[in-house]
Specification:
This protein is 25% helix and 22% strand.
């Protein structure tokens, strides 16, 4: 019996969120604005419950062209698939990205896994010519910027 093979077509879809003003997504050029932007899209009800990982995608003018929740995790870890980060960047023609995850514990200390992931994103971006602008760690009232702290 011969099986029919059907190739799937991928399509990028944009869903406008009327709660998010486009002016809030223009020229996001420092960690304070990146933090503010992540907080606009984050599920704030879960910020202190479990770790999540999000990505912002930028054009050359540093305007946000898209964002995506990459993963939800547990109490103190989240598994991140690099392919989801980079495939989304390619689909929306992003030239730069910023990523963030939260620490429900409220600690600002970066783990070796956080640093390793940041380096992995930088290396993947080099291959695809996509620059990592920052990796932000969020708590309910503060943030840590890898770039501001000279960690890359």
């Amino acid at each position: 019996m011969k099986k029919n093979f059907i190739a799937n077509e991928l399509k990028l879809s944009y869903h406008r969120n009327p709660k998010l003003s486009t002016e809030n997504f223009k020229c996001i050029n420092n960690s304070r604005l990146i933090d503010k932007t992540f907080r606009m899209i984050w599920d704030m009800d879960e910020l202190e419950i479990r770790e999540s990982f999000y990505a912002l995608y930028f054009n050359t003018k540093l305007d946000v062209v898209a964002y995506r929740k990459i993963a939800d995790g547990g109490l103190d870890a989240v598994m991140v698939d690099m392919r989801l980060i980079m495939s989304s960047a390619l689909l929306c023609n992003a030239t730069r990205i910023a990523v963030a995850h939260n620490h429900p514990s409220g600690t600002m200390t970066q783990s070796s896994a956080d640093r390793a992931l940041t380096n992995k994103i930088i290396e993947a971006g080099k291959v695809l010519d996509i620059q990592l602008l920052d990796h932000i760690v969020l708590t309910c009232d503060r943030y840590h910027s890898f770039r501001d702290e000279g960690e890359f």
